[in-house]
Design goal:
5 strands; 5 helices; alpha+beta
Length: 153
């Protein structure tokens, strides 16, 4: 079943508050093999002029949104069977740095739905605005490919 594009674009997804914790940043830095001490040692971070541990660049796109309760609920909200999906694409636009202790708000919405390969692939694009107060710190884009093998028959 294809996603109803108009319904998906109009869907209101609940914003999600997130607290950036030092321990989570350290764990993430270790998991990605980051060896720069500014990502794990508060004194090293402050010596570089940061107020606290900075979030590694990929943290907002990979860790933050996947840590929320039911991170894939937006897909079921538009009628996607998650067993027929593939990760399509992911990108980030950064505006400001994020640090340990920051309180963020993830404001998510579907921004596009389109079909390729004679209808066998449908793409749903979600944008997440990462806000600190009223400041936009980053935009995260995630594209999910929905498989429709019946369209090729």
């Amino acid at each position: 079943m294809y996603v109803d594009r108009d319904m998906a674009l109009a869907l209101a997804l609940e914003p999600i508050p997130v607290e950036v914790e030092r321990g989570r940043l350290r764990l993430y830095a270790k998991a990605i093999g980051e060896t720069n001490p500014v990502y794990t040692d508060v004194a090293a971070a402050r010596a570089q002029g940061y107020p606290d541990l900075p979030a590694p660049p990929s943290f907002l796109g990979n860790a933050v949104e996947l840590d929320i309760p039911e991170p894939l609920s937006w897909m079921s909200a538009v009628g996607i069977d998650i067993t027929s999906t593939l990760h399509g694409e992911q990108s980030m636009v950064y505006h400001k740095m994020v640090f340990a202790g920051d309180s963020l708000l993830l404001a998510r919405r579907i921004v596009d739905v389109y079909v390729k390969k004679a209808g066998t692939l449908e793409f749903v694009v979600k944008r997440t605005d990462v806000l600190r107060g009223n400041d936009l710190v980053a935009e995260a884009y995630c594209s999910i490919a929905v498989l429709h093998p019946e369209a090729g028959k």
